[in-house]
């Protein structure tokens, strides 16, 4: 846990520096589609109940992280995910992705989702908030086709830091600010979640890191 806490401190400091020195950020040039629905991504996360289970391919830990941040900081920008009338695109790490993150930071992979979230919570609310915001593109409804069309572009996130979209051999790869770890891939079976609404999401297999850990 000491290593996890050191990583959290480094993350906060690095993100502050990156946000201050951010360069011009490229975004897809096409306008967002005329999505009419107002169903929020928070409702998508809560669709199978607010609980931990044994399904490592869903988003229970992401949901728990969102709830933890909003409980501690009701005015956090993370609240965008509950506001279905506002456009947003989220790249959602699966529970397995968070387990990989904890394993990378601690050297041990928790056996359960609950234990995984407990380790993530040890990073602190501010760090969790920053990590969540790094997965959200505010003001844009980007379906899978538009994400693919963004190949080679830097996308601005709600954290004020960018990631790059790279399409390679049929895979959509999100290149984050961590230079040492494998980059996240979009999961084909988890694309266009909440399609037809102003807020849309895509599942990814790694947690995006807004700083080099």
Write structural notes for this entry.
- The structure is a single chain.
- This protein is α+β, with helices and mostly antiparallel strands and 213 residues long.
- It has one domain (2-204): FAS1 domain.
- Helices cover 34% and strands 15% of the residues.
- The protein contains seven helices and seven strands.
- It has helices spanning 2-20, 41-45, 60-72, 95-106, 113-121, 125-133, 144-149; strands spanning 88-93, 136-138, 154-156, 162-168, 171-175, 184-185, 199-204.
- It has a four-stranded antiparallel beta sheet with strand order 3-4-5-6, with no helix packed on it. Strands 2-1-7 form a three-stranded mixed beta sheet.
CATH class designation? Mainly Beta
Identify low-pLDDT runs.
1-33
Q: Shape, please?
A: globular
Write down how many β-strands occur, each being a DSSP E stretch of 2 or more residues.
7
What fraction of residues sit in β-strands? Answer: 15-25%
Briefly note the CATH topology name: FAS1 domain
Strand line-up of the largest beta sheet: 3-4-5-6
Average predicted confidence as pLDDT: 87
Report the CATH architecture.
Answer: Roll
The helix content is 25-40%
Going by CATH, the homologous superfamily would be: FAS1 domain
Largest sheet: 4 strands, antiparallel
Distance between the termini: 15 Å
Summarize the structure.
The chain has helices at residues 2-20, 41-45, 60-72, 95-106, 113-121, 125-133, 144-149, and strands at residues 88-93, 136-138, 154-156, 162-168, 171-175, 184-185, 199-204. By secondary structure, the protein is α+β, with helices and mostly antiparallel strands. Helix 4 (95-106) crosses helix 5.
